Protein backbone atom coordinates (compact mmCIF):
# COMPACT_ATOMS: atom_id res chain seq x y z
CA UNK A 1 0.00 0.00 0.00
CA UNK A 2 2.99 2.29 0.41
CA UNK A 3 3.52 2.21 -3.34
CA UNK A 4 -0.17 3.00 -3.89
CA UNK A 5 0.02 5.98 -1.59
CA UNK A 6 3.10 7.26 -3.38
CA UNK A 7 1.42 7.08 -6.76
CA UNK A 8 -1.68 8.72 -5.34
CA UNK A 9 0.48 11.58 -4.05
CA UNK A 10 2.00 12.16 -7.49
CA UNK A 11 -1.39 12.00 -9.25
CA UNK A 12 -2.74 14.76 -6.97
CA UNK A 13 0.17 17.03 -7.64
CA UNK A 14 -1.15 18.68 -10.82
CA UNK A 15 -4.75 17.71 -11.49
CA UNK A 16 -7.93 16.08 -10.23
CA UNK A 17 -10.25 16.68 -7.29
CA UNK A 18 -9.14 15.81 -3.74
CA UNK A 19 -8.72 12.10 -3.15
CA UNK A 20 -12.00 10.76 -1.68
CA UNK A 21 -11.72 8.71 1.47
CA UNK A 22 -13.71 5.77 0.05
CA UNK A 23 -11.36 5.13 -2.89
CA UNK A 24 -7.76 4.06 -2.66
CA UNK A 25 -5.17 6.17 -4.44
CA UNK A 26 -4.28 3.48 -6.97
CA UNK A 27 -7.96 2.90 -7.79
CA UNK A 28 -8.56 6.63 -8.24
CA UNK A 29 -5.78 6.77 -10.84
CA UNK A 30 -7.42 3.87 -12.72
CA UNK A 31 -10.74 5.67 -12.53
CA UNK A 32 -9.25 8.78 -14.12
CA UNK A 33 -7.72 6.64 -16.89
CA UNK A 34 -11.06 5.01 -17.68
CA UNK A 35 -10.14 1.62 -16.21
CA UNK A 36 -11.94 -0.68 -13.82
CA UNK A 37 -11.02 -1.60 -10.25
CA UNK A 38 -8.48 -4.14 -11.44
CA UNK A 39 -7.05 -1.67 -13.94
CA UNK A 40 -8.35 -3.51 -17.02
CA UNK A 41 -8.92 -1.19 -19.97
CA UNK A 42 -12.04 -3.07 -21.01
CA UNK A 43 -13.90 -1.98 -17.86
CA UNK A 44 -15.30 1.54 -17.63
CA UNK A 45 -16.63 3.42 -14.63
CA UNK A 46 -20.08 4.39 -15.82
CA UNK A 47 -22.68 6.12 -13.63
CA UNK A 48 -23.95 2.89 -12.06
CA UNK A 49 -20.43 1.68 -11.28
CA UNK A 50 -19.41 4.96 -9.70
CA UNK A 51 -22.56 5.44 -7.64
CA UNK A 52 -21.83 4.94 -3.98
CA UNK A 53 -18.07 5.34 -4.23
CA UNK A 54 -18.20 9.13 -3.94
CA UNK A 55 -19.66 10.97 -0.96
CA UNK A 56 -23.40 11.23 -1.58
CA UNK A 57 -23.27 8.63 -4.37
CA UNK A 58 -22.28 11.17 -7.05
CA UNK A 59 -20.16 10.62 -10.14
CA UNK A 60 -16.68 12.16 -10.17
CA UNK A 61 -16.33 14.76 -12.92
CA UNK A 62 -13.09 13.24 -14.13
CA UNK A 63 -14.87 9.94 -14.85
CA UNK A 64 -17.15 11.48 -17.48
CA UNK A 65 -15.40 11.25 -20.81
CA UNK A 66 -16.74 9.91 -24.09
CA UNK A 67 -15.72 6.35 -23.26
CA UNK A 68 -17.61 6.53 -19.97
CA UNK A 69 -20.71 7.83 -21.71
CA UNK A 70 -20.48 5.07 -24.33
CA UNK A 71 -20.19 2.47 -21.59
CA UNK A 72 -23.19 3.93 -19.76
CA UNK A 73 -25.35 3.85 -22.90
CA UNK A 74 -24.06 0.40 -23.78
CA UNK A 75 -25.17 -1.06 -20.46
CA UNK A 76 -28.48 0.83 -20.25
CA UNK A 77 -31.56 -1.16 -21.24
CA UNK A 78 -33.86 0.28 -23.89
CA UNK A 79 -37.39 1.04 -22.78
CA UNK A 80 -36.46 1.65 -19.14
CA UNK A 81 -35.54 5.33 -19.30
CA UNK A 82 -31.93 4.48 -18.40
CA UNK A 83 -30.57 5.65 -21.76
CA UNK A 84 -31.98 9.16 -21.34
CA UNK A 85 -30.94 9.17 -17.69
CA UNK A 86 -27.34 8.35 -18.59
CA UNK A 87 -27.20 11.10 -21.21
CA UNK A 88 -28.81 13.75 -19.00
CA UNK A 89 -26.57 12.78 -16.10
CA UNK A 90 -23.44 13.27 -18.17
CA UNK A 91 -21.19 15.96 -16.68
CA UNK A 92 -19.96 17.20 -20.04
CA UNK A 93 -22.20 18.43 -22.84
CA UNK A 94 -22.21 16.00 -25.79
CA UNK A 95 -22.35 17.60 -29.21
CA UNK A 96 -23.80 16.26 -32.47
CA UNK A 97 -20.69 14.24 -33.27
CA UNK A 98 -20.86 12.50 -29.90
CA UNK A 99 -24.50 11.56 -30.48
CA UNK A 100 -23.67 10.26 -33.95
CA UNK A 101 -21.05 8.01 -32.34
CA UNK A 102 -23.51 6.76 -29.72
CA UNK A 103 -26.23 6.03 -32.29
CA UNK A 104 -23.71 4.25 -34.49
CA UNK A 105 -22.64 2.15 -31.49
CA UNK A 106 -26.24 1.06 -30.96
CA UNK A 107 -26.52 0.27 -34.66
CA UNK A 108 -23.49 -2.02 -34.51
CA UNK A 109 -25.27 -3.86 -31.71
CA UNK A 110 -28.41 -4.07 -33.93
CA UNK A 111 -30.40 -2.27 -31.24
CA UNK A 112 -32.47 0.28 -33.16
CA UNK A 113 -34.71 0.99 -30.17
CA UNK A 114 -31.77 2.13 -28.07
CA UNK A 115 -30.46 4.14 -31.03
CA UNK A 116 -33.86 5.87 -31.27
CA UNK A 117 -33.79 6.68 -27.54
CA UNK A 118 -30.34 8.25 -27.92
CA UNK A 119 -31.65 10.28 -30.87
CA UNK A 120 -34.72 11.41 -28.91
CA UNK A 121 -32.57 12.34 -25.92
CA UNK A 122 -30.42 14.46 -28.22
CA UNK A 123 -33.48 16.33 -29.51
CA UNK A 124 -34.40 17.15 -25.91
CA UNK A 125 -31.08 18.88 -25.22
CA UNK A 126 -30.46 22.57 -25.67
CA UNK A 127 -28.11 23.80 -28.40
CA UNK A 128 -27.94 20.32 -30.00
CA UNK A 129 -29.95 19.63 -33.14
CA UNK A 130 -30.23 16.63 -35.44
CA UNK A 131 -28.24 16.84 -38.66
CA UNK A 132 -27.44 14.71 -41.69
CA UNK A 133 -25.04 12.54 -39.74
CA UNK A 134 -27.26 11.84 -36.74
CA UNK A 135 -30.23 11.05 -38.99
CA UNK A 136 -28.09 8.84 -41.22
CA UNK A 137 -26.68 7.01 -38.20
CA UNK A 138 -30.21 6.30 -36.95
CA UNK A 139 -31.31 5.09 -40.38
CA UNK A 140 -28.23 2.83 -40.53
CA UNK A 141 -29.08 1.47 -37.07
CA UNK A 142 -32.60 0.62 -38.24
CA UNK A 143 -31.17 -0.95 -41.39
CA UNK A 144 -28.67 -3.14 -39.55
CA UNK A 145 -31.51 -4.24 -37.24
CA UNK A 146 -33.63 -5.30 -40.24
CA UNK A 147 -36.23 -2.59 -39.56
CA UNK A 148 -36.76 -1.17 -43.05
CA UNK A 149 -40.13 0.40 -42.13
CA UNK A 150 -38.56 2.26 -39.20
CA UNK A 151 -35.74 3.41 -41.48
CA UNK A 152 -38.23 4.80 -43.97
CA UNK A 153 -40.08 6.59 -41.17
CA UNK A 154 -36.89 8.29 -40.01
CA UNK A 155 -36.11 9.21 -43.62
CA UNK A 156 -39.45 10.98 -44.04
CA UNK A 157 -38.82 12.91 -40.81
CA UNK A 158 -35.36 13.80 -42.08
CA UNK A 159 -36.71 15.19 -45.35
CA UNK A 160 -39.26 17.30 -43.48
CA UNK A 161 -36.50 18.69 -41.28
CA UNK A 162 -34.32 19.41 -44.33
CA UNK A 163 -36.95 21.79 -45.74
CA UNK A 164 -36.13 24.29 -43.00
CA UNK A 165 -32.63 23.11 -42.07
CA UNK A 166 -30.18 22.29 -44.91
CA UNK A 167 -27.88 20.55 -42.41
CA UNK A 168 -30.39 17.67 -42.39
CA UNK A 169 -30.19 17.04 -46.13
CA UNK A 170 -29.84 13.29 -46.99
CA UNK A 171 -26.47 12.16 -48.34
CA UNK A 172 -24.90 9.04 -49.83
CA UNK A 173 -24.82 7.22 -46.49
CA UNK A 174 -28.51 7.98 -45.93
CA UNK A 175 -29.65 6.55 -49.24
CA UNK A 176 -27.22 3.64 -49.07
CA UNK A 177 -28.53 2.51 -45.69
CA UNK A 178 -32.16 2.89 -46.82
CA UNK A 179 -31.69 0.98 -50.06
CA UNK A 180 -29.86 -1.81 -48.25
CA UNK A 181 -32.60 -2.04 -45.62
CA UNK A 182 -35.33 -2.30 -48.26
CA UNK A 183 -33.42 -4.79 -50.42
CA UNK A 184 -32.72 -7.04 -47.44
CA UNK A 185 -36.35 -6.76 -46.37
CA UNK A 186 -37.60 -7.87 -49.78
CA UNK A 187 -39.00 -4.41 -50.57
CA UNK A 188 -37.44 -4.38 -54.02
CA UNK A 189 -39.69 -1.74 -55.59
CA UNK A 190 -39.08 0.61 -52.66
CA UNK A 191 -35.32 0.10 -53.01
CA UNK A 192 -35.46 0.96 -56.71
CA UNK A 193 -37.60 4.05 -56.07
CA UNK A 194 -35.06 5.25 -53.51
CA UNK A 195 -32.30 4.71 -56.05
CA UNK A 196 -34.17 6.91 -58.53
CA UNK A 197 -34.64 9.56 -55.84
CA UNK A 198 -30.95 9.35 -55.02
CA UNK A 199 -30.05 9.99 -58.66
CA UNK A 200 -32.55 12.86 -58.86
CA UNK A 201 -30.75 14.46 -55.90
CA UNK A 202 -27.46 14.22 -57.78
CA UNK A 203 -25.94 11.80 -55.25
CA UNK A 204 -23.58 9.15 -56.64
CA UNK A 205 -23.97 5.62 -55.24
CA UNK A 206 -20.99 3.78 -53.80
CA UNK A 207 -20.19 0.14 -54.56
CA UNK A 208 -22.27 -1.21 -51.66
CA UNK A 209 -25.32 0.78 -52.77
CA UNK A 210 -24.95 -0.38 -56.37
CA UNK A 211 -24.79 -3.97 -55.13
CA UNK A 212 -27.99 -3.55 -53.11
CA UNK A 213 -29.78 -1.96 -56.08
CA UNK A 214 -28.71 -4.86 -58.30
CA UNK A 215 -29.96 -7.24 -55.61
CA UNK A 216 -33.34 -5.50 -55.81
CA UNK A 217 -33.34 -5.90 -59.60
CA UNK A 218 -32.49 -9.57 -59.25
CA UNK A 219 -35.15 -10.08 -56.59
CA UNK A 220 -37.81 -8.47 -58.77
CA UNK A 221 -36.40 -10.12 -61.93
CA UNK A 222 -35.93 -6.81 -63.70
CA UNK A 223 -33.00 -8.00 -65.80
CA UNK A 224 -33.00 -5.20 -68.36
CA UNK A 225 -32.90 -2.62 -65.60
CA UNK A 226 -30.08 -4.53 -63.93
CA UNK A 227 -28.07 -4.39 -67.17
CA UNK A 228 -28.40 -0.60 -67.24
CA UNK A 229 -27.31 -0.25 -63.62
CA UNK A 230 -24.41 -2.61 -64.26
CA UNK A 231 -23.29 -0.35 -67.11
CA UNK A 232 -23.32 2.58 -64.66
CA UNK A 233 -21.19 0.55 -62.25
CA UNK A 234 -18.66 -0.23 -64.97
CA UNK A 235 -18.45 3.46 -65.92
CA UNK A 236 -17.53 4.19 -62.28
CA UNK A 237 -14.86 1.49 -62.23
CA UNK A 238 -16.93 -0.94 -60.12
CA UNK A 239 -17.74 -4.58 -60.81
CA UNK A 240 -20.91 -6.42 -59.91
CA UNK A 241 -21.15 -9.64 -57.90
CA UNK A 242 -20.29 -12.76 -59.98
CA UNK A 243 -23.65 -14.35 -59.21
CA UNK A 244 -25.44 -11.41 -60.83
CA UNK A 245 -23.48 -11.74 -64.07
CA UNK A 246 -24.48 -15.40 -64.14
CA UNK A 247 -28.15 -14.54 -63.64
CA UNK A 248 -28.04 -11.85 -66.32
CA UNK A 249 -26.36 -14.16 -68.81
CA UNK A 250 -28.94 -16.84 -68.08
CA UNK A 251 -31.81 -14.39 -68.61
CA UNK A 252 -30.55 -12.41 -71.59
CA UNK A 253 -32.82 -12.05 -74.60
CA UNK A 254 -30.16 -13.33 -77.01
CA UNK A 255 -26.78 -15.00 -77.15
CA UNK A 256 -25.10 -11.80 -78.40
CA UNK A 257 -25.91 -9.92 -75.18
CA UNK A 258 -24.98 -12.97 -73.10
CA UNK A 259 -21.58 -13.15 -74.78
CA UNK A 260 -21.10 -9.40 -74.33
CA UNK A 261 -21.76 -9.70 -70.60
CA UNK A 262 -19.46 -12.72 -70.37
CA UNK A 263 -16.61 -10.74 -71.93
CA UNK A 264 -17.42 -7.53 -70.04
CA UNK A 265 -17.27 -9.18 -66.63
CA UNK A 266 -13.80 -10.51 -67.41
CA UNK A 267 -12.63 -7.13 -68.71
CA UNK A 268 -13.89 -5.62 -65.44
CA UNK A 269 -11.67 -8.03 -63.50
CA UNK A 270 -14.36 -10.48 -62.40
CA UNK A 271 -13.44 -14.16 -62.79
CA UNK A 272 -15.85 -16.55 -64.47
CA UNK A 273 -16.68 -19.91 -62.95
CA UNK A 274 -18.47 -23.11 -63.92
CA UNK A 275 -21.89 -21.56 -63.24
CA UNK A 276 -21.20 -18.57 -65.49
CA UNK A 277 -19.93 -20.80 -68.30
CA UNK A 278 -22.95 -23.09 -68.01
CA UNK A 279 -25.27 -20.08 -68.32
CA UNK A 280 -23.42 -18.91 -71.43
CA UNK A 281 -23.49 -22.44 -72.87
CA UNK A 282 -27.28 -22.51 -72.50
CA UNK A 283 -27.56 -19.14 -74.25
CA UNK A 284 -25.35 -20.30 -77.13
CA UNK A 285 -27.39 -23.49 -77.47
CA UNK A 286 -30.64 -21.51 -77.57
CA UNK A 287 -29.16 -19.34 -80.32
CA UNK A 288 -28.00 -22.32 -82.37
CA UNK A 289 -24.34 -21.35 -81.96
CA UNK A 290 -22.94 -24.87 -81.78
CA UNK A 291 -19.43 -23.88 -82.94
CA UNK A 292 -19.15 -21.29 -80.15
CA UNK A 293 -20.41 -23.91 -77.71
CA UNK A 294 -17.51 -26.15 -78.71
CA UNK A 295 -15.08 -23.23 -78.37
CA UNK A 296 -16.42 -22.56 -74.89
CA UNK A 297 -15.78 -26.17 -73.85
CA UNK A 298 -12.21 -25.85 -75.08
CA UNK A 299 -11.69 -22.56 -73.24
CA UNK A 300 -13.04 -24.06 -70.02
CA UNK A 301 -10.59 -26.94 -70.25
CA UNK A 302 -7.67 -24.59 -70.92
CA UNK A 303 -8.64 -22.44 -67.92
CA UNK A 304 -9.07 -25.51 -65.68
CA UNK A 305 -12.71 -24.64 -65.04
CA UNK A 306 -14.59 -27.79 -64.00
CA UNK A 307 -17.11 -29.00 -66.58
CA UNK A 308 -20.05 -30.94 -65.18
CA UNK A 309 -22.37 -33.31 -67.01
CA UNK A 310 -25.09 -30.67 -67.29
CA UNK A 311 -22.78 -28.39 -69.27
CA UNK A 312 -21.72 -31.27 -71.52
CA UNK A 313 -25.37 -32.18 -72.10
CA UNK A 314 -26.18 -28.62 -73.16
CA UNK A 315 -23.35 -28.78 -75.69
CA UNK A 316 -24.64 -32.16 -76.93
CA UNK A 317 -28.09 -30.62 -77.36
CA UNK A 318 -26.67 -27.81 -79.51
CA UNK A 319 -24.83 -30.34 -81.67
CA UNK A 320 -27.69 -32.83 -81.90
CA UNK A 321 -30.10 -30.23 -83.28
CA UNK A 322 -27.90 -29.79 -86.35
CA UNK A 323 -26.72 -33.40 -86.57
CA UNK A 324 -23.04 -32.68 -85.83
CA UNK A 325 -22.16 -36.28 -85.03
CA UNK A 326 -18.38 -35.89 -85.27
CA UNK A 327 -18.40 -33.13 -82.67
CA UNK A 328 -20.78 -35.18 -80.52
CA UNK A 329 -18.30 -38.06 -80.56
CA UNK A 330 -15.65 -35.60 -79.40
CA UNK A 331 -17.83 -34.39 -76.51
CA UNK A 332 -18.67 -37.96 -75.51
CA UNK A 333 -14.96 -38.69 -75.46
CA UNK A 334 -14.40 -35.77 -73.09
CA UNK A 335 -17.16 -37.07 -70.84
CA UNK A 336 -15.41 -40.42 -70.76
CA UNK A 337 -12.05 -38.79 -69.91
CA UNK A 338 -13.72 -36.91 -67.06
CA UNK A 339 -15.10 -40.23 -65.73
CA UNK A 340 -18.62 -38.81 -65.68
CA UNK A 341 -21.62 -41.11 -65.87
CA UNK A 342 -24.13 -40.29 -68.65
CA UNK A 343 -27.74 -39.81 -67.71
CA UNK A 344 -31.03 -39.97 -69.58
CA UNK A 345 -30.47 -36.50 -71.01
CA UNK A 346 -27.17 -37.62 -72.54
CA UNK A 347 -28.78 -40.62 -74.20
CA UNK A 348 -31.77 -38.55 -75.29
CA UNK A 349 -29.64 -36.16 -77.34
CA UNK A 350 -27.58 -38.98 -78.80
CA UNK A 351 -30.75 -40.64 -80.06
CA UNK A 352 -32.03 -37.29 -81.33
CA UNK A 353 -28.83 -36.80 -83.34
CA UNK A 354 -29.19 -40.27 -84.82
CA UNK A 355 -32.67 -39.41 -86.05
CA UNK A 356 -31.59 -36.06 -87.44
CA UNK A 357 -28.55 -37.43 -89.26
CA UNK A 358 -30.23 -40.57 -90.57
CA UNK A 359 -26.83 -42.17 -90.88
CA UNK A 360 -26.87 -45.71 -89.52
CA UNK A 361 -23.08 -45.88 -89.34
CA UNK A 362 -22.77 -42.69 -87.30
CA UNK A 363 -25.69 -43.77 -85.16
CA UNK A 364 -23.90 -46.99 -84.27
CA UNK A 365 -20.76 -45.05 -83.38
CA UNK A 366 -22.66 -42.67 -81.12
CA UNK A 367 -24.54 -45.45 -79.38
CA UNK A 368 -21.34 -47.43 -78.95
CA UNK A 369 -19.61 -44.41 -77.41
CA UNK A 370 -22.45 -43.96 -74.93
CA UNK A 371 -22.22 -47.68 -74.16
CA UNK A 372 -18.55 -47.24 -73.27
CA UNK A 373 -19.58 -44.61 -70.76
CA UNK A 374 -21.80 -47.02 -68.84
CA UNK A 375 -20.48 -47.76 -65.33
CA UNK A 376 -18.87 -51.15 -64.86
CA UNK A 377 -21.05 -53.41 -62.71
TrEMBL record:
UniProt cross-references to Gene3D superfamilies, sorted A to Z: Tetratricopeptide repeat domain
Q: Which Pfam families does the entry link to?
A: PPR_3, PPR_long
Any idea where the PROP1-like PPR domain is?
A: 96-237
Highest rank taxon of the organism: Eukaryota
Q: Where is this region: Disordered?
A: 1-21
Q: Which UniProt keywords apply?
A: Repeat
PPR repeats at which positions?
A: 131-161, 171-205, 206-240, 308-342
Q: Which family would the database say this protein is a member of?
A: Belongs to the PPR family. P subfamily.
NCBIfam families per the record?
PPR
Q: Please identify the protein, giving its name as recorded.
A: PROP1-like PPR domain-containing protein
The organism encoding this protein is Ostreobium quekettii
Q: What is the lineage of its organism?
A: Eukaryota, Viridiplantae, Chlorophyta, core chlorophytes, Ulvophyceae
